[in-house]
Design a protein that fits this description.
single chain; alpha+beta; PH-domain like; seven-stranded antiparallel sheet; 14 strands
Length: 211
């Protein structure tokens, strides 16, 4: 459906074609065009916004768990559209979290990623149970433990499709990386978010006082 969005970094409303696909919210500049970015619904929170008193049907998306750093608004003049959209978002959010809690199954995924820098050669990002291994020419160059990951966030710019930024708890890399396809970026993010969520839930469970 067409919805008006204020995406991260933007200051005005702009219409986008938006679709919910499984755990993701795909955003395109117009109907029939390939999505340039996609946000994982399972790591977002949504609430009615109070920032637009003249528009009571505005929804505000934000990073409730800290696994991503994103904040944007959604609005449409049709209250039935926004209601159906909200119901779809809530169903996807609930399904993702309940599936992880029920199955507790870490994911593995590998794809090519273009690092920052014009002359940088592509590397492989290999997501496993507790880390991301960065592999170049068949050799592991570095690894990122998921417990050290601060956030990983897709780009909101249509001029930078399939791009994302990640940051570590000790600072580190905040430049944009890019997957070769949107599908690869979505599968990469889903594996990272799923495994990080499992680690976080296990840590919180272990820290909880016993009765």
């Amino acid at each position: 459906m067409f919805l008006n969005l204020i995406l991260p970094g933007a200051k005005t409303w702009k219409p986008y074609w938006v679709e919910i696909h499984d755990n993701f919210l795909d955003i395109s500049v117009e109907y029939g065009k390939e999505a340039f970015t996609s946000y994982h619904i399972g790591v977002l929170k949504v609430r009615p916004s109070k920032d637009f008193p003249d528009r009571p049907d505005v929804l505000e998306f934000y990073d409730g768990d800290g696994l991503t750093q994103v904040h944007f608004y959604v609005f449409t003049y049709d209250p039935f559209d926004i209601l159906e959209f909200f119901k779809g978002i809530c169903a996807s959010y609930k399904n993702w979290r309940e599936t992880i809690q029920r199955e507790n199954q870490p994911q593995q995924f590998t794809c090519e990623v273009k690092p920052p820098g014009f002359f940088s050669a592509n590397v492989d990002w290999k997501v496993s149970q507790d880390r991301i291994s960065i592999v170049k020419s068949g050799r592991e160059e570095s690894s990122i433990f998921l417990k050290d990951l601060q956030s990983i966030t897709p780009s909101a710019s249509s001029s930078k499709p399939n791009a994302f930024k990640f940051s570590l708890k000790n600072g580190g890399d905040k430049d944009e990386h890019r997957c070769l396809t949107l599908d690869n970026m979505k599968r990469l993010l889903d594996a990272i978010y799923t495994n990080t969520f499992i680690i976080k839930s296990a840590s919180e469970g272990a820290a909880a006082p016993s009765e």
